[in-house]
Specification:
2 copies of one chain form a homodimer. Chain A is an alpha+beta fold. Chain A has helices at about 10-20, 25-35, 45-55, 60-70, 115-125, 145-150; strands at about 40, 75-80, 90, 100-105, 110, 130-140. Chain A has 2 domains: about 1-95, Winged helix-like DNA-binding domain superfamily/Winged helix DNA-binding domain (Arc Repressor Mutant, subunit A); about 95-150, Ferric-uptake regulator, C-terminal dimerisarion domain (Dna Ligase, domain 1, 2-Layer Sandwich). In chain A, about 40% of the residues lie in helices and about 20% in strands. In chain A, α2 (about 25-35) packs across α3 and α3 (about 45-55) packs across α4. The longest helix of chain A is centred in the middle third of the chain and has 13 residues, at about 60-70. Chain A is globular and about 45 Å long. Chain A binds a DNA duplex through α2 and α4.
Amino acid sequence: MPLPQTEMPGRLQAHFAERGIRMTQQRRAILRVMETATKHLDAAQLLRKAQKLDASVDRSTVYRTLQLLKRHGLIDELDLMHIHGEGHYYERKLNRDHIHMACLRCGKIMEFVSDIFEKLKGQVEKDCRFRIVVSRLEIGGYCAGCRGAK
Amino acid sequence: MPLPQTEMPGRLQAHFAERGIRMTQQRRAILRVMETATKHLDAAQLLRKAQKLDASVDRSTVYRTLQLLKRHGLIDELDLMHIHGEGHYYERKLNRDHIHMACLRCGKIMEFVSDIFEKLKGQVEKDCRFRIVVSRLEIGGYCAGCRGAK
DNA sequence: GATTCAGTTGCAAACGAGTCGCAACTATAG
DNA sequence: CTATAGTTGCGACTCGTTTGCAACTGAATC
C-alpha cells in the first residue's frame, strides 16, 4: 500500500534549507528515510532505517528530529488505534488530509480521502470559530475481507 | 464545560449487571467516578478520585477496569492531541459520537456534534466496505478567544 | 582555508504510562 | 456454608520517550 507520492523526494530537505534549519549528516539520513518511506513508520523503525544510511544516528536524535518536523508541520503523528502497542507512527504531511482506518482483526491500515471530511473541517472552522492547525481522524473496525469472518 | 448528561448516573453499573460482570467495591468506586465526571479524566486522576470513595483502589485495578470498559465499548479513549503529555483520557460513550477540539494556546477542550461527521462515517462504511467499531476525530488549533492573540 | 560559536550530537541515566505474575482475597452460584 | 472462578494489591517490570551534559560540527565570517 504505497503512500501517494504527490511531493518529490527531497522536499523535506528543501523545507529545512528554506527555513534556515541546520542540516546535519544525521538529519539528512532521517529525512531521506521519511521521504522514501512507503508505509507508516514508528520511531524504532525509523531509527533502524536511518542507521543503515548513517550508522552514527542515535535514538535521541531521531526523537529530536521528529519533534522538529512536527513543530514545523511537516509530518503527522498517528496512533493507528494502538493496534500494535502504545507508540506513535509518522508520515509526511501531504497536500490533502486523509482518514486512517485500522482493521481490528488483520491489522491492515487503510487510507481514505474524502470531500466530506474537508466539508466537516470547514463546518468546525465556521460554526466553532476554531482555526484548525492539525486534525486526525482514525477509525477502528473490520475491513471488507475480515467483515465476514468473526 | 460539563459533558452532556444524556444517560443517568448508575448506567455503567447497570451495564455490568446485565452482562453478568462481577461487581466489586473497587469497581463500584471507579464506575461512580466515571459516571459523575464532568470532564475528561486520565488514569491518574481517575485513581485519585476513586481512592476518595474507596482508599483500597490500586493503580493496576484502575487500568484493568479501563480495559474492561473499553472492551465492552462503554468508554472512549482520547489523546486530546497530547496537549498534556503522552497519556490517555477517558469518557463515557454516549449516544452520539463527537469531535474533540483542543486549543494549542489555552489548552481548552471543546466538543462538537455534527451530522456531517455521521455522513462521513456512512461514506467510509459504504465506499470502503469497512465496518466501523470505534472512531476518533481530534483537532488541534486555536479557539475563538485565542485566534486573535499570537 | 582558518576561526568562531550557537546549534547539534551520542551517551547514559531518568522518566511516566501502562502491564504482569503471583499469592491472598471475595463475589457469587449451588 | 462451601467451593471456586474471578478479582485484587503489590512490586517489579517493560516500553516509548525525554533529558542533562560534555564533546562535536555546520555554516557564517573573516
